[in-house]
Recover the amino acids of this structure.
């Protein structure tokens, strides 16, 4: 049988398809995003982009109660948003199987923190599986759904950046048509009021014991006996890194990282001279193994932060690294290449003006978080999705002197995700902050997914377009206006007025993402009037650079937004091929 | 058991590094090896660095390449070549473009673009630390083949001439993954790199 090279995310999607999943829901988030993008291609799967992760899980819950197999996917911080339904879903159990895929990001390649999702499995008392490559990613989705139905529990599947975004060979199978399980009303099991929930909590504890028993015998957990001097307990990507670093060592590979199999662990520990745990982030396995009274070394040798690579494992356990860096001349610094707002990005001018007006900017998460970097440097804080508006209100309540200077900045997708409740709070609690919604008509950060404002679903079908201005008015904001961010004067005037207003206000900065806007625009160039003052460089546009005693615009990169021409005080930037005086 | 070969590919968002690694993967798979590819492209669309690892052999465990491990580095840009140079093992081979793309700290004047990158890498070859340095004006070469976006494919051509697989395998892989209207230019760019040295 021929094998296909699949990323972990593609394999998870394929696994869901083959396992007969009927409903899939997610809010995008690196490194999990592509799972639903791949699932959207399967006609048999109702795959949807939800407005946030809590909604996605709740859609999954309904689908599973209705008898269908369901998958929900999110990045690690998405589980924080979805934690409320997850905790009680553990009590109700499922009907059709439900798998919650969570993609962690050790090393924070593109995240605001590196929380370890395994803690959620333990917290919610649900099992968690952890694949170590794409083949397992596919197979474990099937295993998770079967486990879900057999034990009447949601099952978590933990991926990570290295699993989701690495490709390896996978044997494909056919879709298994899993019939809908009959729907039978069962209020005692699904209406979680205290009397019923008390009974269900007891059921959860009893289920956990049965799952532990099953983990002892599951083929997903296995001992690989090799040289018995060293034994390593590991799961997920760490299994691969350990195999690379210590090919001779014995390994207990855990495909189920929660709950753990105590007897199997004891057997393994007894069979080796020295026992180690290799795991990224928290000492999740290590603490539990130690609690079993077994002596084991883990975080004494390995960091609690970031990824753990084979070199480090070899050095720490075998006493010699696999390789040493090629010695290169040290006298030459290597400038970083940080991500930047693209040429023509409609977010840029907003941050330029906010900085110019010295406003306090309560930021949010999306491409526009890059407005925090120099030279724009316009953002004061950024915590999690949706926090901009509510934290902005807190700034105002916390320090009355800041009143009139506070601007909350949030993207369109983020506003739909979790900004609306914050805005309602500003109105209800008599705040007077300005909220700028950066409406670039897409979820750009994660690769241009649709959202409730774009008029299309994940599958590309047309749907109702939710308009921001009427929503803001409906939330009680009386001062709502739209501005084109390519018009600096209009933007300056609007921000000045609305920031000072003594009541809540909203500016919708509306302009499509420059990567999606394919309309031809005239390019801009620098003329002889340039005094090399550098004012335009404060925009941080990657198309512009100082070259000798002037600034140049790279025609291959210029997107023709014309914002630089508007911030130039010397009329030194004009449309290419147009004489100076015609340029105004 | 055959030894694992490790190839690190680095460039700037939009240069086609991911396509290059997929092209190579196609060829490797066609020759029956186990392989793993790892991509880091979190915010690369926004002009950041893009990095992919390609590893193949009889059984590949880790998808990662660490400093001192790469048999080859392919860099779409000179500063990226310099950035990933320490990832080569002693005797490893550097394939890179002579193109320069300034990162933002250089544009704003906070930092300088390093000078004499090629000369310093050549010195490492002369000292016997590097096995080879193959630098080509990939962008210009691809443009003269009719498709500047095929610059990275020209670099793959240079790399391919150093790997064990026949050139035809790459042409076949291109036919499998590149849209028809770009195919001819991509094949030409590949061959321009393949026959350059
Ligand atoms: C809870 C949570 N879910 C998902 C993400 C990943 N994520 C970060 S920003 C973002 C979307 C940003 O879209 P938008 O607000 O429209 O801004 P844009 O990137 O288009 O400027 C997503 C999905 C996250 N950081 N946190």
């Amino acid at each position: 049988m021929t094998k296909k090279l699949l990323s972990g995310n593609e394999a998870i999607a394929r696994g869901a398809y083959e396992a007969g999943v009927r409903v899939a829901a997610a809010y995008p988030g690196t490194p999990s995003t592509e799972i639903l993008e791949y699932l959207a291609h399967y006609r048999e799967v109702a795959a949807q982009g939800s407005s946030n992760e809590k909604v996605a899980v709740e859609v999954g819950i309904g689908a599973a109660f209705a008898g269908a197999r369901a998958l929900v996917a999110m990045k690690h911080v998405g589980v924080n948003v979805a934690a409320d339904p997850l905790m009680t879903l553990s009590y109700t159990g499922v009907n059709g199987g439900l798998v919650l895929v969570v993609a962690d990001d050790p090393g924070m390649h593109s995240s605001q923190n590196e929380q370890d999702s395994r803690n959620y499995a333990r917290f919610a008392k649900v099992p968690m599986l952890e694949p170590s490559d794409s083949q397992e990613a596919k197979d474990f989705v099937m295993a998770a759904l079967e486990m879900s139905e057999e034990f009447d529990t949601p099952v978590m599947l933990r991926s990570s950046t290295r699993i989701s975004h690495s490709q390896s060979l996978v044997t494909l199978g056919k879709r298994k048509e899993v019939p809908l399980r009959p729907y039978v009303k069962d209020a005692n099991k699904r209406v979680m009021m205290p009397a019923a929930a008390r009974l269900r909590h007891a059921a959860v504890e009893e289920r956990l014991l049965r799952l532990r028993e099953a983990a002892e015998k599951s083929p997903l957990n296995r001992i690989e006996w090799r040289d018995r001097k060293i034994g390593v307990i590991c799961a997920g990507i760490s299994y691969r890194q350990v195999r690379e670093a210590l090919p001779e060592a014995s390994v207990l590979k855990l495909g189920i990282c929660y709950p753990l199999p105590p007897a199997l662990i004891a057997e393994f520990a007894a069979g080796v001279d020295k026992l180690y745990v290799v795991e990224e982030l928290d000492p999740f396995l290590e603490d539990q193994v130690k609690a079993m009274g077994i002596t084991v070394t883990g975080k004494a040798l390995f960091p609690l932060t970031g990824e753990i690579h084979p070199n480090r494992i070899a050095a720490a356990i075998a006493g010699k690294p696999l390789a040493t860096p090629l010695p290169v001349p040290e006298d030459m610094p290597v400038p970083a290449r940080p991500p930047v707002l693209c040429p023509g990005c409609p977010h840029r001018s907003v941050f330029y003006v906010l900085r110019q007006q010295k406003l306090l900017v309560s930021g949010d998460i999306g491409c526009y978080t890059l407005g925090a970097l120099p030279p724009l440097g316009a953002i004061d804080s950024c915590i999690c999705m949706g926090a901009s508006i509510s934290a902005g209100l807190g700034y105002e309540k916390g320090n009355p002197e800041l009143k009139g200077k506070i601007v909350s900045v949030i993207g369109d997708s983020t506003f739909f995700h979790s900004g609306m409740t914050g805005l309602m709070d500003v109105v209800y609690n008599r705040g007077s902050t300005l909220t700028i919604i950066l409406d670039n008509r897409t979820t750009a950060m994660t690769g241009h997914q649709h959202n409730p404002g774009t008029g299309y679903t994940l599958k590309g079908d047309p749907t109702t377009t939710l308009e921001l201005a009427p929503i803001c008015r409906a939330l009680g904001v009386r001062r709502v206006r739209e501005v084109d961010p390519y018009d600096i004067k209009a933007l300056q005037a609007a921000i000045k007025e609305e920031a000072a207003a003594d009541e809540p206000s909203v500016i919708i900065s509306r302009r499509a993402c420059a990567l999606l806007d394919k309309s031809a625009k005239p390019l801009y160039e620098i003329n002889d009037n340039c005094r090399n003052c550098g004012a335009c460089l404060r925009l941080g546009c990657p198309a512009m650079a100082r070259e000798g005693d002037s600034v140049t615009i790279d025609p291959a990169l210029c997107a023709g937004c014309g914002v630089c021409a508007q911030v130039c005080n010397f009329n030194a930037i004009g449309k290419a091929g147009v004489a100076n005086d015609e340029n105004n | 058991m055959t030894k694992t070969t490790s190839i690190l590919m680095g460039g700037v968002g939009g240069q086609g590094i991911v396509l290059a690694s997929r092209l190579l993967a196609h060829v490797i798979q066609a020759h029956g090896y186990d392989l793993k590819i790892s991509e880091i492209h979190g915010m690369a669309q926004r002009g950041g660095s893009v990095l992919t690892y390609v590893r193949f052999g009889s059984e590949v465990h880790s998808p990662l390449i660490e400093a001192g491990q790469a048999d080859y580095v392919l860099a779409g840009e000179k500063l990226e070549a310099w950035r990933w140079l320490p990832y080569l093992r002693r005797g490893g081979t550097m394939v890179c473009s002579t193109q320069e793309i300034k990162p933002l700290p250089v544009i704003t004047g906070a930092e300088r673009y390093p000078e004499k990158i090629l000369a310093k890498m050549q010195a490492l070859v002369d000292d016997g630390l590097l096995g080879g340095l193959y630098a080509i004006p990939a962008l210009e070469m691809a443009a003269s083949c009719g498709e500047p976006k095929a610059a990275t494919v020209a670099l793959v051509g240079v790399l391919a001439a150093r790997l064990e697989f026949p050139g035809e395998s790459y042409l076949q892989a291109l036919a499998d993954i590149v849209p028809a209207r770009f195919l001819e230019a991509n094949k030409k760019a590949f061959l321009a790199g393949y026959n350059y040295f």
In short: The domain at 3-176+188-217 of chain A is CATH 3.40.50.970 (Rossmann fold). Chain A touches chain B through 56 residues (CB under 8 Å). The pocket of thiamine diphosphate is lined by residues A 27-29, 53, 75, 77-78, 81, 365-368, 385, 411-414, 438, 440, 442-446 (CB under 6 Å).
